[in-house]
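User: Show me a protein chain along with its predicted structure.
Assistant: Here is one chain, sequence first, then structure tokens.
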Amino acid sequence: MEIHTRLDQISAPFPHACVTIGNFDGVHLGHQQLFDAVRRLAHQHHGTAVAITFDPHPLQVICPERGIKLISTYEQKAELIAQAGVDQLLVLPFTREFAAMAAESFVDEILLKTLGVRELVVGYDYAFGKGRRGDTEFLKAQGREKGFTVRVIEAYTVDDMVVSSSKVRELVAAGRMEAVTKLLGRFYQLRGVVQMGKKRGGSILGFPTANLSINENDLCPKHGVYVTQVVYNGKCYGGVLNIGYNPTFAEGQLSAETHIFDFNQDIYGKPIKINLLKHLRGERKFNSPAELAAQIAKDAAEAKEVLVAAEKEFLLACYDKYND
């Protein structure tokens, strides 16, 4: 997939451009319906599957007071869109000036002149442009007038839940990782570089951990202990993770600490990816390190049982297409 971050990087319209537009935060199963549609259309017409998205997320610019917490980083989003089979990704810088663009100008200057849209695929609730005037009915009318087809993809549901980014955020915050997995079509993933911690995990508790810093402004799962898969250097390992403030040691700093099963490599300063499978329990303060160590041993045993029960899904989630 080729990524463009400016319009002038596209020198000519794409052959029979089949285009979809959206924020695509999380690239959940609803978004994947859009990508499937443009990919099929592009294949049918020997054309080009194109996705348009925005950076930063429009709500971070228009309504910063809402403090929207994103499911995926820009890098994750681009990876997942590429895995969905899109040929070209246009990432438009979102500013207040861009938000004020008239819907007709967006169609004329970007969809038609730059991309050469022939087929447009949008979600049922999509709207853009000044005053959100560019809704699905507007786009259909523009298509009839200017010679492109508009297909509207209806809401996608799983277990009677409409799949949406806001629903995924709600479930992540509640620690309902099994439901999150169903809506994303994959495990929710944390990424980061392993930080130097207090080294208590191994020396005091007997459970060495890989520590990631968590930004409180980012989407953070419910505090507590999780069953995890840890992806490092192309290999996948089971593990148990604690997200929280380490109340037993009264640290007061939010962190994610993962004990990786059957692993003894030095990975300080190395990037890892952590898939969250299941929330086991909430974070709590223990009376002593020994009491905490005993609980971690119980958590690890329970986590291993979960991983054995989900061995097939465990292996599938370690494929490169999910974790590279």
